[in-house]
Structures are given as structure tokens and as C-alpha cells.
Amino acid sequence: MVNLSFLLCFSEGGNKYKISSPMKELPEQEDLNFDREDDIVYGVPAEEDGPRRYQSGSSTTSSCSGSASGVLSENNGLVGLRNIGNTCFMNSVTQCLSNTRFLLEYLVRDGFTSDINTTISTMKGDLVKAFANLLSDMWSEGGDTSRALNTGPFKSQIQRFAPAFSGYQQHDAQEFLRKLLEGLHEDVNRVSAKPRPITEDIDDDLDDTQKAMESWKRYLRYDDSKIVDMFVGQLKSCLQCSICGHCSVTFDPFWDLSLPIPSKSGQVRLAQCLDLFTKEEVLDGDERPTCSKCKERRKMTKSFSIQKFPKVLVLHLKRFSPLERWRGKLSCTVEFPLETLDLSKYASSSSTSPFYNLIGVANHSGTTYSGHYTAYCKHPYSGTWHEYNDSRVSNISTSRVCSPEAYVLFYEMASTSSKL
Ligand SMILES: [Zn+2]
């Protein structure tokens, strides 16, 4: 995993809290790494747990203050999150997910607890419970835009799952999102015992649709959850031999698509990024792959298309080049539609015509080395857009949603109903 190690983000003034006693009871494996102790906001003493708080395994420290259970209505959910030391990347992603209706309803209303995986999951449910508690607090009755919640209990669980997010450095929001979704998925994975691996290749005589289905079935043998149902799509890649014309196809699951930006500055359209992502690439010279039919290394063309469209599509705009950081950040505006993003051009099959509506954007402002994250999200019940800047939540007009700071886009498939 590439850590862009952004240095500082704008920390909010006035958020100085002493570490309070409940923190001392944290399990040993927690590496809290208080490298900036003076500034750390953490550990508001836990109040009595309400009836619907989810407790982590052996620890009582994962409870937030308050005893709310979420109320999903248009008046709620407009709650800020404190910056507890460069955690704007986490706050931004959390707000985007809090406004992702499928996930919100699953974690706050629809009883995910019966899905908790206690056998092969790393966290045995502690991560999903901590995140569900946070969302429940964000959606508690009488949501008051002047209050901001402490994300400490959730942070301590995500850093148990992904130690890279320990401490108080800035991190990349997209890497955080991936890791969080992976952890949530593990915690509610329907697969309770690791299956025996299938060693034989998928039968080459099957047609592409059958191959895609077989490949998806194989993926689900290991990874099968409501989180997968929501976020995972399937990408088809084709390698076509320039000599015999044989096309060898492979299908891979994806949690998001990382789109190259075909310009350093100025303005491009999202479609241009998608075009570049799916563009045919010629593999020649040293890169020549072996054709499975000719059994020889041949010049081939490689292309991608989308076989299976996820309900929630995450598009990551590659503003940072992890291998060439000296190039800095691409700060051009990528124009993207708020409604009816049409992806039929990128579909493997011409019979699918998927349309998506934008529901959230994680924004990054500043440079590669110093920056700040915010989120713009569409309220899932009122349909109005809000800006979430750590503890502050404010209304914004839709004309401001598309900005040069947009970094990770969250789209929801338009044709699906609210129920999975
Ligand atoms: Zn060939």
C-alpha cells in the first residue's frame, strides 16, 4: 500500500482534550502512538451504554458517549466530526459513507449484527460495531449541526485492523476507504470457514458471460457480504493476439476504479478519464504476452470494460502519482455529472445501460505534502447537498459540488431500489 504521507492538515483550534481514564483500559494490541499528546482529542469518558450500543468483544471502550440509536430521517445526519489530529481524511470518508443510503440503513436500521463473522474475521465484529455506533450517533434524534462527535472509539478499532492508520499523520482518503470497506466486509462476511482453493483455470470453452459468472462465483466463495453486494463490481480485461486474433479474457472484482486524468491543468470531463482508463493499450516488445492459442509471445492489445456494475460505484481520480511524487498533484477540474452518469459505453455487454447519480465527494485541497480533506454529500432523505468540514456542516448549492478539489466520487446506481 502506498502511503502518501501528507504532512499536516489544518487542525482545528480549540479541540484540545486530555486523554481521559477509559483509554487506559484499551487492549494491549492497540498502538495508539500518541506522538502529539498535547493536541490529541480523545477519550471523552464513556457514558452509560444505551440499549442499542454494540459492544466490542472484550473491551468496553468502543462505545461513544451518548445512547442514541439512529433515526433515519431528513432532519438527521447533519453532524460534524471532530478532528482529533489530522483525521480529516477519515472524517471526509466517514461522511461520504454516512450518506450512502444502502450502507447507512444496513448498519443503523437493518440489523447487521446477525451477519457478524466471528470465525475468520480479523476483528470479530469490533470494527463494524464501532462504525455502526458512530453512524448511529451521527443519525441520532435531534441532530444538531452545532455538535461534533468524537471519532476516537472508531479510530482505535480501525487502527487495530489497519495499523498503518495509527498515530496522527495525514493519510490518503482513498486508501483509508478501501481499508475500511475491507474491514467492514470481513466483519460481516458470510463465509465462515476458508474454502479449499480451486486450482484449475476457468474452462476456456465457456462463453464470456459464463466465464464472468464462474469467476464471480469463485470470488464469492471467499468474499461474500452485504458490503460486497453494495460496493464490488467486476472488470473484464481482454488480451487480443495481433496474429491469430484470439482474445483471452479475465475477470477481476473491483472495489473502486482509479481513473487517470488526461491533463495536468485546465478542465477535463469525467468521460475523458473513463476513456483513458478503458483505452486499448498495445503490449509489444519486452511486454509481449504469450498468446494462449499460438503458444508464442505475441504483440497484443489490452482493453478493459465493466462486466458487473456495483450498486455504489466509487471513482478515484488519480491526482497523485505515487511513483512520481515530484510531479505533484494534478489540480485540474474534472467535470462530472451530478445526475445520470451514463456508463453504457464502458459496459462489456451492450445490453446493460447503467446510470448513476452522485451522492458524495471526498475533496482534497492543498498540495501532495500538505492538504486538507472535506466532503460534499447529498442527504439520502432530503436530497440537499451539504459540506462537511470536520466539525462544521453547512449547506452548499449544487453548483459548487464539482470543484478542482474533488478526489473520490461516490455514485449510486439510479435504477436500484432502496432495498438490497
Ligand atoms: Zn495468437
TrEMBL record:
InterPro entries to which the protein is assigned, alphabetical: Papain-like_cys_pep_sf, Peptidase_C19_UCH, Ub_carboxyl-term_hydrolase, USP, USP_CS
GO molecular function, one term: cysteine-type deubiquitinase activity
UniProt xrefs under PROSITE patterns: USP_2, USP_3
Region annotation (Disordered) ranges: 45-70
Swiss-Prot/TrEMBL catalytic activity: Thiol-dependent hydrolysis of ester, thioester, amide, peptide and isopeptide bonds formed by the C-terminal Gly of ubiquitin (a 76-residue protein attached to proteins as an intracellular targeting signal)
Gene Ontology biological process terms from the UniProt entry: protein deubiquitination
Domain (USP): residue spans on this chain: 79-414
EC number: 3.4.19.12
Low complexity: compositionally biased ranges: 56-70
CDD domains: Peptidase_C19R (cd02674)
Transmembrane segments: none
UniProt-listed PANTHER family: UBIQUITIN CARBOXYL-TERMINAL HYDROLASE (PTHR21646), UBIQUITIN CARBOXYL-TERMINAL HYDROLASE USP2 (PTHR21646:SF23)
Protein name: ubiquitinyl hydrolase 1
Organism: Petrolisthes cinctipes
